[in-house]
Amino acid sequence: MIFMSTSITTIRLDENLKKDLQKNLDSIGITMNTYFVMAAKQLVMQKKIPFDIFTEIPNETTRKAMLLADAKEAGLIPDDSPSFDNVDDFMQSLYGDNV
């Protein structure tokens, strides 16, 4: 039997986040320590963070932009976005005569 030495690590969490995390972990029957060890092992094995990282769920401005893009794609409203055949025309539209 192989025994691995362990070390104590302190993790600082916002109290509300900790409560929510604990509630979710309790519901699936694993401890907070087990969760963090699992995440750490996956990061080491995969050489990347083992889950998608999301910032704030789309805010109001982003939601509106997404709806507008979907409506244009579906043909519900006209797509008045300019299109370009070459980079020079695109740069001209961005910067005018300052290109």
UniProtKB/TrEMBL annotation:
<comment type="similarity">
    <text>Belongs to the RelB/DinJ antitoxin family.</text>
</comment>
<dbReference type="InterPro" id="IPR007337">
    <property type="entry name" value="RelB/DinJ"/>
</dbReference>
<protein>
    <recommendedName>
        <fullName>DNA-damage-inducible protein J</fullName>
    </recommendedName>
</protein>
<dbReference type="Pfam" id="PF04221">
    <property type="entry name" value="RelB"/>
</dbReference>
<keyword id="KW-1277">Toxin-antitoxin system</keyword>
<dbReference type="InterPro" id="IPR013321">
    <property type="entry name" value="Arc_rbn_hlx_hlx"/>
</dbReference>
